[in-house]
Every structure is written in C-alpha cells, then in structure tokens.
Request: fold
Amino acid sequence: MISKMYRFNSAIPQLIMDNLHPLHGDIKGYRPQDKEMTSEPNLSESDGVLEYDSLKLYYLERLIKDCQGKTQLIFSASPLYKQTKEDNLDMIKTICDKYEIPLINHYTDTAFNNKRNYFYDRVHLNRRGATAYTKVVAGEIKRILEQNNQ
Reply:
C-alpha cells in the first residue's frame, strides 16, 4: 500500500499483453487517428471560454524556472476545429512574454480551423491534420532554434 502499486493489481495481465502485443499502433507516444469528422460538432457558448487553474499556472512557472539556463523551452498552441477566441491564450502569452519563451500559436489558424478533413473530433487532429501541422511547426521550431544560436 505504501507504493500505491496495488491500484494496478487487476491490470497486470493487460499491461503485460499490451507490451507483448499492443492493440494500437504507437510511434513514440503518437497514436495516429485515421478517422475524419463526419458531422458538425455541437458547441455551446461556454465551449470557447477557458478557465485557468491557478495551481497549474504555478507549476508551469516552476517548470519554466527549473528549465532556465538548462534547456530551450518552446510553447505551442495547437488548433481546434472551431476556435475563434484568441484571448483564451492571454494568460499563456503573458507568461511567455515574462520569461521570454517563444510561443508557436496556431490556436486560431484558418489553415486548420473549420477543416473537417484535418480533425478526428473537435479537439484532436487526425493523421492528415497532424502531418500538416507537424510540417508547419517543425519549420517554426527550426527557425526559433537558429535565431537563438546566432
């Protein structure tokens, strides 16, 4: 009970089987979804409003402070299917400005927003969308790293 491993007692056979014969294809943590949205998701007024958790913000700043001088942090805001409220990122932008952390922002990027063929559901990119997004973000990360190395 001290180690809290008891929570996994009933899951041990499944954990072993998943390691021997995984049910899902997995590429270093990325599990591609080949499905495509077929219908328009129902969105309420509150769906576009983010509430920030002060504890998560505290630990985010602790992470930033722990990484300073040790590694280059780059934050990224990925697109959602329907997202038009750029001000949802105001807190993150403030933190990035405060600590001079680059923010790659595609939250309201019209190259991705409202494109059903890029989404598995309203918040997850499918394989096609993830591939397109990765190409864009990889180039942006490369430019940021090149600027910092000059």
Observations:
- The chain is about 35% helix and 5% strand.
- The first helix runs from residue 12 to 20.
- The radius of gyration is 19 Å.
- The first strand starts at residue 75 and ends at 77.
